[in-house]
Structures are given as C-alpha cells and as structure tokens.
Amino acid sequence: MSGAIYALLTGNTLIASVLVILVVLSHYGAAHYLLYILSATVFALFIRGFSPDVISVGIVLAVHSLTMFIWYRLVFWHVGIELNAFVKSSVTLNSITLEKPLYQVVADGKTEHFDATGNPPEKGKLQALIELEHRDPALQVAFGRTMKYFTLPQWIEFILSWLTVVLVMAGLILSTLWLGWTLYIVLSVVAFSSIVIAIAIPHVSIFYGVVRTYSTALILLAPCFAVGVEAMGTILGINEYALGFIVVLMYALCVSKILKRLWSRGV
Questions:
Q1: Helix or strand (DSSP H, E) at 39
Q2: Residues 39, 156 share a domain
Q3: How far apart are CA 19 and CA 123, in angstroms?
Q4: What is the pLDDT of residues 116-135, one digit of tens each?
C-alpha cells in the first residue's frame, strides 16, 4: 500500500495501478481501507476543482474497484458476502456491538429481558452508539477507562501514545497551513478521518480495530509526526532531532513491552 501511495504522489499512475492490484490480491482489509482512501481523496479533490490529480487518482481508483469486483464478487465471492455484511453493519445501527448479552426470566407467565449485569436493558442502540464500552478495548484503555489499574510502564505508554497523537495532529495542521490543499495533504486528511471513523463507529472499532486503523494511517501521517516534533522542539527550545529520538525510542520500548519486562524484573 505504501508503494502505491508513493507512486501516486510521484505521478506514476501506471505503477500505482499495478500496486493497488497487488493490495487487493494480498489482503481484503487493506484493500477496503485503500478503497476508502482513494474514493474520499477523489471526492475531496473534485470539490476543489478538476485537476490532473483527480484524473490520476481516479484512474487508480477505477483499477482498484474493478479488481475488487472481480476478486471478491467473481472469484472469492464468499469473502465478498462477509465484507458486504461488515459494511452494512458499519453504516447502520444493526451491529451486534451495540447489543449487550441478554437472558430471559419467565415469571407468572411474563417474559422479562435482562442484560449480563442483571439489570433490565434500558438503553437503546442510539444511546449505546456514544458509549465507550461498545468500542475496541484498546480504545477504552486509551481514554483512561482502566487508568486506576495502571502501573508505571503503562502510565509512560499512555502519556507517550497521546503525545505522538498530538504531534501527528499538530504536524498535519501545520503541513496543511504551509503546503495548502496538495495531493499529499488531501491523502493525509483522509487517512486521519479513517481514524475518526474507527473511533466513532463501534462496528469498525471492534472488528477492524482502532490500533490497526491508526497504524495503517501512519503510512501517510508519519511525516506529520516529524513536522510536529520540529514545532514542539522550537517552542520548547529543544533540539528537534534529540526530542524526536527520545520520543520514538521510549515509545518503541513501551509498545514492544521491553520497558514492562524491565520494570517487572526490578531493573
């Protein structure tokens, strides 16, 4: 996917078209993610006016869509059925992620429904849509739901994770102000919107995953992190290279669980 994006940014439409075919053949999740990125990018570019970028991205989108139709409708049609169900559940309120496990109690000829906690389910799906408990467990941790159980390594990972998110967001905003509505900026904004969608829609949050979406979006958003680090270093009067190295090193020690192992051994 990163190769296809790079080919698009460098104007190699033919190479990008070949690479998106390989993305479709390699993994259905990445194929659908790229389909969203390309579709939203064409739409955003077209709103700003017709340009060569609209043509190049449109051609790659057409190749990508045609390949997906052939691969998931004619060849592996059973996978296509599951993907259609996923999309339908994502854009409607008919998702099992909005329901709690129910059991029935029959007394005096009346049937009453209770959730797993023993309380009558009073909340509808629309209200459940805004509740954190109906989303990816990793997202619940990120928003501090289990904060009172954090160890020191978990606190460090929590702070560094949000710091990287803030730096990426700051870098995206600054890059947009500096570069304007270029193809890279449009692709990056669309990639960031995919993270927002993964947070907002419970079905996407759980069955595709916020962490997975964020990691994939970093293919485009990684340069924004560097811009954010440079801006933060300027504000704090710290060398941006040293700051970036420390943040990345500490974050790597956290996500690889090395810091947690060192802490448990008392090092």
A1: helix 28-48
A2: no
A3: 46
A4: 444 444 555 666 667 777 77
Q: Is residue 250 part of a domain?
A: yes
The rounded distance, in Å, linking the Cα atoms of 103 and 152 is: 40
Cα 1 vs. chain centroid, distance in angstroms? 15
Domain boundary, last residue among 124, 142, 163: 124
pTM of the model: 0.79
Domain residue limits at 10: 1-93
Count how many domains the chain has: 3
Instruction: Tell me: do 207 and 234 sit in the same domain.
Output: yes
Candidates 235, 263, 248; CA nearest to 161 is 248
Residues in Cβ contact with 83 at an 8 Å cutoff, skipping those fewer than 6 apart: 28, 32, 72
Count Cα atoms within 13 angstroms, Cβ side, for 250.
18
Distance CA 197, CA 125 (A): 18
DSSP 163-217: HHHHHHHHHHHHHHHHH-S-HHHHHHHHHHHHHHHHHH-HHHIIIIIHHHHHHHH
The Cα-based distances of 47 to 8, 59, 177, 181, 249 in angstroms read 19, 17, 19, 11, 41
- For residue 207, the model assigns a pLDDT of 74
What is the DSSP code string of 214-263?
HHHHHHHHHHHHHHHHHHHHHHHT--HHHHHHHHHHHHHHHHTTHHHHHH
Q: Of how many residues is the chain composed? A: 267
